[in-house]
Amino acid sequence: MRFLPLILLFVCILSGCDNGFESDSNSAVNQPEPVTETHNVDMTNTETKSKDIIISYIPKSLDNPVFLETKDEAERISRQYGVKMEWMAPMNTQAAEQEKIMESLIRRQVDGIVVSCIDADRLSPHIDNAIDAGIKVATFDSDCPNSKRLFYVGTNNYEIGKASAYKMLDTLQAHGKMNTPLKALVMTGDKESLNLNERIRGFQDVLNAAVQVDYLSVLECMDDLTLAGELLETYIRTNDDVDLFFSTGGWPLLVPVDALPEYRKWREKGGMAVIVDTFYPMVVAAKEGMADHLVGQEFTIMGRWSMEHMVEAIRGKKFTQTEYFTGIEYADQSNFDELLQMKEPWEIK
Amino acid sequence: MKKLITSSMKVKLIICITTISIVPIMILGYISYQFYIKNLQENTILYSAEVIARVDKTIETYVSDIINILNFRNDYYLLHYLKLTEAGNIDNNRKYTVRMLEQFNQYKMMKTDLEDIRVVMENGYTIGSMGQYWDTQSDAFFKLMKDKPTDEAIIMAPHQNLLNVNVFTICKGINASSLHQFSALCIDVNTEFLNRIVKDINMGTGGYVYLTDAQGKVIYQPARSDHLRNHKAVIDHKKLEDEESGSFIHAIEKQDYIVTFITSSLTGWRIVGVSLESELVKGVDRIRSITVLVIAICIVAVILISVYITNRMTKPIKALQELASTAAEKNFSDHATVQGRDEIGYLALSFNRMITRIRELMDQIVEDKDRIRKMEIKAMQEMIKPHFVYNTLDSIIGLLESNRIDDALDMIEALGKLFRTSLSHGKEIIAIHEEVDHVLTYIRIQQFRFFNKFDYEANIDSSMRAALTVKLILQPLVENSIYHGIRGKEGRGRIEINGYQKADHIVLEVLDNGGGIEATRLRHINHVLAGRTSVTDASDYFGIRNVNERIKLAFGPEFGLMLEQVPGGGIKAVVRLPLTSDSNGGIHL
Predict the structure, then answer these.
(1) Where in the sequence of chain B do the CATH 3.30.565.10 domains occur?
(2) Contact state of B131 with A88 under an 8 Å Cβ cutoff
(3) Do the beta carbons of residue A65 and residue A251 sit within 8 Å?
(4) A100: closest chain B residue by CA
């Protein structure tokens, strides 16, 4: 696994893609490329060479704001290439609905599909059908490695899980709890999501090797922010023996912090928390004491790389590299302020 | 048939009662049946029309709700989203995009039949509950939209949406002045809601409802329960094409269906209800069977009741009839049993009274006849008194001894004639001329016996000679005149016999010029003869009473005998008899 980043770097240089990120857990990732340009591109400037190329993105759900940066960046890139981009998903994370949308795109014979898989096993045959129908299919954020997809663009989820565990060990060390039996609470989105499970696996592999930890429960919030807050609050209120909390995504800190009084109390009592993602509101919340470390993903890069590679694929490029890992961003007390200056506040309401 | 009708009163009554009862029952049954069937047919069509109207109302209510949702097209955030989208402002449009997606999905949650709500821009870019995508077939749609006023909602025919769900679409245009492109807000409604509205509609087991658009294309069509074809038949009829609403009978696969349809004013859809006429007919057959059964039961009941009633009515009449037919044989001794106070009861009472009266009259007649017979015998006995016979025979002997053979033969002949008339072959009633001959014969005999002491004269109108009279009535009167009038008179006596018609009766008079009767006694005699008083001794006035009673017995109480004083002396016995005739003609009464 250590050589993987090197391999990725080599492949990226060969394929001419932008930026290969090291996934070394001990080094902070440089600041992500700024993607805050506003393209006042005329909507009508989507003319392609001979026929409009349509590339459809299928995130896990429409109500999860974490994918908006991917969407916006992909849309900007699509205009540069003169292709038409679509963004279609069920409102909530529902595997069956995602499959229906996939099938509708196959019927419409779009040119490319970029999908974040809710349930890799269920979606795999549909991806294969699309490939067989002549549609280019790639994955982002959550992979479907057993399918015929051309490539995956997104976080190395196992590595980000490991990185999160390392950050948790840093916190445990700081609190002098390395030799204490610990009880851990985990939150994830969908228990069937491969990417999230990989994060859990990475986290557990590192943590289990270093400390004695017992995993009390894995809360499944189905990518629903409101549900995430409720589940966390309820569990913390009814179980007072939780030592540490790890979330495979940023859902609990994307709700207003006022909605998590029990969690705040737990934090004040010394509860340790590491959460994946470094969105602006999460950094704000973490700065207010709601998390020790944030380990973030490069959603903007996901949008850019996925669109670029898909356009190349549609134009006939053959891919030898099937995974394009985006970088990891770390946030803690040492750089919360800096990140808040760099990042754009979320304006989604 | 005629023989049956005229056979007996019982049969006549039964026929009458059943005819009077059955004919109205049958007429009433037929009219009721026809009226009910017509009513049933009308009600079926009316029910179908109401059902269809209800479906229309429900659809229109639902579609109106959907159209109300389309007012979202004027939403500030929506218009702002479109403006930023036109400008290509990705960053600033993020929050509006999220808001749109949330809003659309809220609408979807509010109405479960909403498959999608979306905004389609003229270039095909679409944002809806499934996200953002390009509609590459929107040209024809926008051409249609632009031809319509912006405020008019357009309902598109059913089609399959992106997810292959059968939907129909309702759209309204968005034509804000701040926008460069024409856009439309569209709502996709799952056609399953039509099935939900229609599935509980009861059009009978073979009936169904389907919908078409204004061009006749099917919007909703129920599936068949069998598996021969997927859907039930769509009606092909000119009336469906030409008219907005109505009903008619249509044959499908040799079965008649009642088809009722209306056109929705809001959607322009035709809602067609089809019900199997045979199900109605099944009801009609049942009604017909029940009607026939009821009529048959009524007829049987009427017949049984009429038989019973007529039996009850005719039984006493029959008893009376039998009694009447055997009354004479049984000598009017049996009486009818009186039951009830109805007409038949009174008839039986009257019959009994009649029987009693007949019996009394018969007894009276028998008694009278017996009395007459006795009186006749008595009269004959009086007439043929031994003294009269002896004296007459002595007279005859004397004549023979005197060799007055001719006179003797005259006397003998007269005596024989006298006896013959007395008997009159047993007849009680004889002709007047016979009676006059008899009395004249008697007078001649007496004239001879009394040595021509008196004269006699008989003046009988020839017109009344054939009239009838009781026999032996003049002789006793003449006898009285001789023995009580003339025999004691000094000088020559005279007996006059007159007979004439007076008004409507006959008068026979026997006059003498004897000594007469004292007035008081005469009055008493007449009172006795009139029945106003009676005699103390049965032998008093026996002769004239005998004559009087026999006349009254034979002809009635208004006839009879009375005595009058003759001016200058003497008595006139006046006999009043009715005008009668004999078998040979004569005077007719």
Answers:
(1) 384-578
(2) yes
(3) no
(4) B163
The answer to whether the Cα torsion of B559, B560, B566, B567 is positive or negative is negative
Alpha-carbon gap, residue B447 to B454, rounded angstroms: 7
Fold of B384-578: Heat Shock Protein 90 (3.30.565)
In CATH terms, the fold of domain B204-280 is Beta-Lactamase (3.30.450)
Mean pLDDT of the B561-571 span: 92
Query: What is the overall mean pLDDT for chain B?
Result: 84
A39 touches chain B (CB under 8 A): yes
Tens of pLDDT, residues B284-314: 777 778 888 888 898 889 889 888 888 888 8
Minimal-distance CA residue of chain B relative to A58: B131
Residue range(s) in chain B whose domain bears CATH number 3.30.450.20: 1-203+282-327, 204-280
Which residues from chain A sit within 8 angstroms of residue B102, using beta carbons?
Answer: 63
Using one digit for the tens of pLDDT, what is the confidence trace for B65-104?
Answer: 999 999 888 899 999 999 999 988 887 888 899 999 999 9
Chain A partners of B108 at a C-beta cutoff of 8 Å?
91
- Which letter, b or e, does each residue of B123-140 get, where b requires 16 or more Cβ atoms within 10 Å of its Cβ? bbbbbbbbbbbbbeebee
Cβ distance B134 to A52 less than 8 Å, yes or no, reads yes
Q: Which fold has domain B1-203+282-327?
A: Beta-Lactamase (3.30.450)
Residue B550 CB coordination number (10 Å): 25
Q: Is pLDDT at A255 greater than 80 in this prediction?
A: yes
Tell me, what's the ipTM? 0.77
Confidence of residue A340 (pLDDT cuts 50, 70, 90): very high
- Distance from A71 to chain B by nearest Cα, in Å? 10
Domains of chain A plus CATH, in order, are 4-155+299-327 (3.40.50.2300), 157-296 (3.40.50.2300)
Q: Enumerate the H helices of chain A as residue ranges.
A: 4-15, 68-81, 95-108, 120-132, 157-175, 194-210, 225-238, 261-268, 280-285, 299-314, 336-342
Query: Whose CA is closest to A329, among A32, A6, A72?
Result: A32
Mean pLDDT to the nearest integer, A68-79: 94
On whether the pTM is more than 0.90, the answer is no
- Which chain B residues are Cβ-neighbours of A63 within 8 angstroms? 101-102, 105
B251: β partners: B256
CB-based contact A100 B163, cutoff 8 Å: yes
Q: Cβ contacts (< 8 Å) between B95 and chain A: which residues?
A: 347-349
CA B486 to each of CA B442, B447, B493, B513: distance values in angstroms, whole numbers, following the listed order: 15, 11, 5, 7
DSSP characters over B215-232: TS-EEE-PBPSSSSSSBP
* Residue B258 CB neighbour total at 10 angstroms: 22
The CA distance from B365 to B550, in Å, is 13
- Whether A268 has its CB under 8 Å from any CB of chain B: the answer is no
